[in-house]
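Here's a chain:
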Amino acid sequence: MKKFTVLGLTLLSALAFSQKKWTLQECVSYALENNLQVIQNTYNTKLQNNTLQIAKREFLPSVSGSINNTASFGQGRDVFGNTNRNDNFSNSASVGADILLFNHGRLEKNIRKTEFDVEATQQDLERIKNDISLQIAQQYLSILLNKEIGKIAESTLQNADKLYQRAKITTEVGTTARTVLAEAEATLAREKQNVKTAEINTDRSRFALAMLLQLPDYKNFDVQEVPLDNMVNAPLFSAENIIDKAYENQPQIKAAEARIKSAEAQTEITETAFWPTVSANAGVGSSYFSLFNAGTDINGNKIRQSGFFKQYKDNFGQQVGVAANIPIFNKGITRIQVEQAKINEDIAKNALAQQKQQVLQNVQQAQFDAEANYENYVAAAESARSAELALDFAEKSFAAGRSTVYDLNSARNNYANAQGSVAQAKYNYLFSLKLLNFYAGIPLTL
């Protein structure tokens, strides 16, 4: 019974998933959680955070211990030059600690540099998320566009079918020539093909978005339709008004700024090589030594050796030291490394200038596209109204017998093409507007 219950819940879950229609926000959220490129860069961010933790722990002392055991066999010579058998066992143990006292702030500077590296990596991740979000928004609008074109094709097909049915009747009663029926039949077949093409284009755009989301079941994937006519307004922002905000908000700019600071910190780190390094160390230890055959003393008595614990107590010792490493001459390598670090600063600053130039061009392009697409939409809408009026005259004229079926079909084709142009211009404008608003710091929504 439990097996059937689990199977039923699984099937219901799969059915609910297949019937689900995704919103733009759901598509973006799903991609940002499951996209492999996002996941890969999330790992990079975690690695950089671990590097920062390592840099912070460099302030702590390093403590290590050692235990040595040695057994020696064979002949040995004493201080008097006599050769004797010298089989022995020795043991020693020690614990030592080292701590850095002075290195001209190298550790602090390394932490600061790593913090900037972490920030740059995080901004790289945000840039990838933004790129994926924009791709999803564009593909989402492409699906809506193809669906709208499909509705236009369906409406045109219905009109073509009505014309065919009418022509069939009038031809059978002999009021119109068979050429009228043939033309109506050809028009009906052509509109059926247009509907099928629109369906294929819609399926293709749905497939493209499903692949972008990396969904395993693309065949049952669909998006939620959104009424967009009320969103079509003149552009709200201009490039001049939003460029400063784009410089502040765009992650590629923030990443480039963080890398400049990282390069400057690296120069400071490199310069610390001119300064001495002072460290302190401390340790404790003890040892044990035993001959396998201690022999006898001058009186012939067997030599007694101290036990392990007594020797460890008697041999216990401590040591404290301070060491300084003073650079004197290293072939001028440090000076060259400082020059290289400053060159890297210039490279980072140039990269920031390039990113700002790219953002400026993107904003200006979005502004140009928004204005051009809006004008194109207005012109297309006006053309569609004229085509609709011409179609109305053609239908009335055809009903009155003053025009041919060819004239009516031509008017309907012109109107359908005009409707398609309006839809294309509308969605092009909406994406341009969303892109422009995105640079202004407004989240992607529909």
User: Anything to note?
Assistant: The chain has two domains: 21-62+96-276+332-439, 283-325. The chain has a mean pLDDT of 87.
